[in-house]
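Sequence, please.
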């Protein structure tokens, strides 16, 4: 007999033993009965709440800087620890809400939008399914347009009616669009390939030429900014020289720019307490004349210095950039001559390469006005005229100089008298063009004062004879200039034959000096 039947329960009732219990039958589940007190207990409520939280907020792995915070090892006596725990709980709730919004937003769409970057606690394992494709890891990017295919060496593709040569308009247009990517990075070409843009050869060549022109222009601007003195600014080398003047006590402070021109920039500064190397007293206010280090403005002005015997030998041996330093040196020497002759002009303080420090003509950072800007009455205008005439004669006779750029723009009115400035281009009368420069100065001065209402003002020819002492009796300006050129030619021949810079101009004695 089957042992199972023998082992039947005694309370199985009447009948065969094998019918009382089947080994393959489903066991009867006994229902667990619980009382109302168990249902209302707090422990059961906490367990149910914990199960719901685990279902709603899956376990995440958070990477924190400090030790992992749990309920067992958390020190609730620390406010910082409590704040970290509350923040972590808030971040989990925020991420759960974000996931629900993401699922609601995407729905059943094949293209899904991920809010992964907005989550507070990033899970270690990505929620994206394995079926999603990361396009960055694939060789083919469907969102990037294909580049034009390369034409084989035979020069065509296809056969018969479907043949396409390398000169096809569409093929050439796409190739030109792809070649725009080789332009300089500064030249923005856009996404022409993505838009399937087709550029003709004419348009592409025009764009290519424009890109090269812009690249060269950008290089020129960069070089000009680094190596030249721009308007109201200085290059790094000039700035370093100015810093040294302030550091060694020559200057106390540099306040700002007061004048700009084609050749130089003038700054105002307060003089320092220490004296210069040659024990010159530094005035309370100084003018710093910085000659621009570009050669553009000096290309047409080399005639003022290359034919000057004082600098002629040095001019031929220097490179072009050192001419600018020589220009500043020339103004220093000319100002020194004028100062020794007692002509009102700025006093030279110090010369450093292309920076010339002079006394300031003005007061309290306000420069003296130019003669063209100041409004003078008839008496002051007449007084100014005779002052200018006296200074021109003394400049010619005592200083042996011709201003060569004298006009109302280079004369200042300060303390009731005229001051001469900007003598960097001044030359000696024996210069090959010295008399021409003097006649031009006389014309500018005569026209200005005649317009100003000075009845005693001489015309340019009379003023030229009064300043130079020459007696040129020409009836018109053309003959007058012809005689001046003849005198200059005669003087030049004399210099070449005798090798001395001695004037051969014949005069009828010294002209009378006009005083006030």
């Amino acid at each position: 007999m089957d042992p199972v039947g023998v082992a039947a329960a005694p309370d199985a009732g009447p009948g065969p033993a094998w019918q009382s219990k089947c080994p393959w039958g489903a066991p009867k589940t006994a229902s667990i009965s619980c009382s109302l007190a168990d249902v209302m207990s707090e422990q059961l409520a906490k367990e149910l709440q914990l199960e719901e939280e685990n279902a709603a907020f899956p376990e995440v792995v958070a990477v924190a800087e400090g030790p992992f915070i749990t309920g067992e090892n958390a020190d609730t006596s620390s406010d910082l620890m409590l704040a970290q725990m509350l923040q972590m709980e808030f971040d989990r709730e925020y991420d759960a809400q974000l996931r629900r919004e993401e699922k609601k937003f995407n729905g059943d769409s094949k293209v899904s939008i991920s809010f992964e970057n907005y989550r507070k606690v990033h899970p270690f394992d990505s929620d994206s399914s394995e079926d999603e494709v990361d396009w960055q890891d694939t060789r083919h990017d469907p969102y990037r347009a294909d580049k034009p295919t390369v034409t084989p060496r035979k020069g065509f593709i296809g056969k018969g009616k479907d043949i396409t040569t390398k000169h096809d308009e569409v093929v050439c247009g796409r190739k030109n669009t792809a070649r725009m990517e080789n332009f300089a990075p500064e030249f923005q070409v856009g996404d022409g390939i993505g838009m399937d843009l087709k550029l003709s050869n004419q348009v592409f060549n025009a764009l290519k030429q424009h890109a090269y022109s812009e690249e060269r222009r950008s290089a020129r601007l960069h070089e000009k900014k680094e190596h030249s003195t721009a308007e109201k600014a200085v290059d790094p080398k000039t700035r370093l020289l100015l810093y040294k003047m302030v550091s060694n006590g020559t200057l106390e402070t540099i306040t700002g720019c007061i004048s700009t021109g084609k050749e130089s920039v003038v700054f105002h500064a307060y003089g320092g307490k220490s004296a210069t190397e040659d024990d010159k007293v530094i005035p309370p206010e100084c003018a710093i004349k910085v000659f621009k280090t570009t050669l553009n403005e000096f290309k047409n002005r080399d005639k003022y210095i290359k034919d000057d015997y004082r600098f002629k030998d040095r001019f031929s041996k220097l490179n072009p950039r050192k001419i600018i330093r020589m220009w500043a040196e020339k103004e220093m020497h000319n100002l020194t001559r004028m100062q020794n002759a007692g002509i009102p002009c700025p006093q030279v303080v110090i010369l450093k390469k292309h920076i010339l420090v002079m006394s300031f003509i003005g007061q309290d950072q306000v420069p003296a006005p130019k003669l063209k800007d100041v409004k003078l009455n008839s008496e002051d205008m007449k007084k100014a005229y005779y002052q200018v005439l006296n200074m021109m004669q003394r400049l010619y006779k005592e200083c042996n100089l011709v201003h060569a750029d004298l006009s109302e723009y280079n004369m200042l009115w300060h303390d009731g008298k005229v001051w001469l400035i900007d003598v960097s281009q001044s030359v000696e009368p024996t210069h090959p063009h010295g008399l021409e420069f003097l006649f031009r100065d006389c014309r500018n001065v005569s026209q200005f004062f005649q317009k100003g209402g000075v009845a005693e003002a001489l015309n340019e020819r009379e003023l030229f004879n009064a300043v130079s002492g020459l007696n040129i009796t020409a009836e018109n300006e053309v003959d007058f200039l012809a005689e001046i050129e003849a005198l200059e030619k005669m003087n030049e021949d004399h210099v070449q034959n005798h090798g001395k810079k001695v004037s051969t101009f014949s005069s009828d004695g010294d002209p009378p000096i006009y005083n006030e």
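Residues 232-367 form a domain with the Phosphorylase Kinase; domain 1 fold (CATH 3.30.200.20).
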